[in-house]
Design goal:
Elements lengths: L20 E3 L1 H9 L1 H9 L8 H16 L9 H18 L10 H21 L9 E9 L4 E12 L5 E7 L9 H19 L5 E6 L4 E5 L3 H24 L42 H8 L2
Parallel strand pairs: 1-3, 4-5
Antiparallel strand pairs: 2-3, 3-4, 5-6
Helix pairs in contact: 1-2, 3-4, 3-5, 4-5, 6-7
Bound molecules: iron/sulfur cluster.
Length: about 300
């Protein structure tokens, strides 16, 4: 005769939410700009040609991050300029291809001078000697209840003695016209949503610093803004899922096509559509952390 089965108490297990999709501000922006661009970047994973402007953006971001390693009184334009060469060396070591963007040292010198001008622009917007950032290049991430993961890199987070959060992002281009401010702020509301969902605090101020024309675009969000951003992202992900199931990502022509690396595979530009890839990346690896990092520098 067998022994009566022993009843094992069931313990609630704190399982992580299954991830059904993953978005960063850049990839969400790709889909809103052009669904085919999203497909080529996020599903086909076509490589993007490095450009001297994009690499300069990465370099300037790196210098601005390092600047805050210095004691506050030393955070001057002159010190920032001395950080350019070592950061450029570091970048070449990490990504040797970037050196091939320049034909000779004279071109490199001219390019470094343009990066210095952007740094000088930064110092006209704020005085880093009076700042004590709480976080720099901070990876933020949340999985929403439905399983959509949001992730991104925040350039800088400042925390006031009152606990108020300020989210700061550096842009090496020029500020958008009034008609495009909403699009620019979308990225910041995305970060604010993730911070709110993970830390329970609505950031007090979102601040975009455009070093190209030395302008600041700032916004104070409220919970309503962030709920609307969440709804928008969920709707966006639904649209991406529908397009993936139908294998139908349509091109959307705009003036941004001039900067698109994939025109030769774009029917709207006379190119031939690439066949659907054999392997579609799983949602939880659709955009690896280092890709989020690179995209954040755009
Ligand atoms: S060229 Fe324009 S329409 Fe075509 S994929 Fe690129 S962004 Fe989209």
């Amino acid at each position: 005769m067998s022994a009566a089965p022993v009843e094992v108490p069931v313990q609630p297990v704190d399982l992580p939410l299954p991830v059904v999709g993953s978005l960063s501000p850049s990839r969400a922006g790709d889909f809103m700009t052009c669904p085919l661009l999203y497909r080529y970047r996020s599903i086909d994973r076509l490589p993007q040609e490095p450009s001297s402007a994009a690499v300069r953006g990465t370099l300037v971001h790196a210098v601005l991050e390092r600047l805050f390693d210095l004691p506050a009184p030393e955070r001057t334009p002159e010190q920032a300029a001395t950080l350019l060469a070592p950061e450029w060396d570091r970048l070449k070591q990490a990504e040797p291809d970037v050196a091939g963007l320049f034909t000779d040292e004279t071109e490199v010198a001219t390019w470094l001078t343009s990066a210095k001008a952007l740094l000088d622009g930064y110092f006209t917007l704020e005085d880093p000697r009076r700042l004590d950032p709480a976080e720099r290049e901070s990876f933020v991430e949340v999985v929403l209840p439905g399983g959509l993961r949001l992730r991104g890199i925040v350039d800088r987070l400042d925390v006031a003695p009152t606990g108020d959060l300020r989210v700061v992002d550096y842009k090496t281009g020029r500020s958008p016209g009034e008609a495009f401010e909403g699009k620019a702020l979308f990225q910041m509301k995305f970060y604010a949503l993730v911070l709110w969902r993970t830390r329970g605090v609505v950031p007090k101020r979102l601040q975009l610093m455009y070093l190209g024309d030395r302008e600041v675009l700032a916004y104070s969000p409220d919970e309503g803004d962030l709920l609307a951003t969440e709804r928008k992202l969920l709707a966006l992900w639904e649209a991406i899922e529908r397009a993936t199931q139908a294998r139908d990502f349509r091109p959307r022509v705009s003036k941004l096509c001039d900067w698109c690396d994939h025109q030769r595979f774009c029917p709207a530009k006379g190119g031939e559509l690439l066949p659907w890839p054999e392997v579609v990346p799983a949602p939880d690896v659709a955009e690896a952390r280092h890709q989020v990092h690179l995209a954040a520098q755009e």
